[in-house]
């Protein structure tokens, strides 16, 4: 092999193992309540992307906890609250949602993350839509 090809291969393997593509991403949440007249489309940020994971050949030798894979998850987040328009007086019109401030590759924490990717699309409106830019 040529020296250039060898150096490219070494650089690619080294950088590829260290790099992850976990970053903030814009996302729209659609929120509605049965009692309210409108669906609220909220623009927020989430953590999304790829995290480097290694699958070991010695699965039978390791504890199950050592086999969990890294996912792109929140490093820092805060909660904001929006008001759903068109709600009658007896209905609480507030909706709190997470806003990602920074992201990291780490173990998935089910206390605040959905660790399963579902193919069913549930993020849509069935009522007239209002946009909330926060």
TrEMBL record:
Subcellular location(s): the record lists: Secreted
Recorded hits in Pfam families, A to Z, give: Cys_knot (PF00007)
Give the UniProt keywords, A-Z.
Disulfide bond, Glycoprotein, Hormone, Secreted, Signal
Recorded hits in PROSITE patterns, A to Z, give: GLYCO_HORMONE_BETA_1, GLYCO_HORMONE_BETA_2
Q: Which residues form the signal peptide?
A: 1-18
Where does the Glycoprotein hormone subunit beta domain lie? Answer: 21-125
Asked whether the UniProt record includes Protease among its keywords, one would answer no
Q: Kindly report the protein's main subcellular placement as a broad class.
A: secreted
Name listed for the protein in its UniProt record? Thyrotropin subunit beta
| Organism (species) | Upupa epops
List the gene name. Tshb
């Amino acid at each position: 092999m040529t020296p250039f090809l060898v150096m490219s291969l070494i650089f690619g393997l080294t950088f590829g193992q260290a790099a992850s593509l976990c970053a903030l991403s814009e996302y729209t949440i659609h929120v509605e309540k049965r009692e309210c007249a409108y669906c609220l489309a909220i623009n927020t940020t989430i953590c999304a992307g790829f995290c480097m994971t290694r699958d070991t050949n010695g699965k039978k030798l390791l504890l199950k906890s050592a086999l969990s894979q890294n996912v792109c998850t929140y490093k820092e987040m805060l909660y904001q609250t929006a008001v759903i328009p068109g709600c009658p007086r007896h209905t609480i019109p507030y909706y709190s949602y997470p806003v990602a401030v920074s992201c990291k590759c780490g173990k998935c924490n089910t206390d605040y993350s959905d660790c399963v990717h579902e193919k069913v699309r549930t993020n849509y409106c069935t009522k007239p839509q209002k946009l909330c830019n926060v």
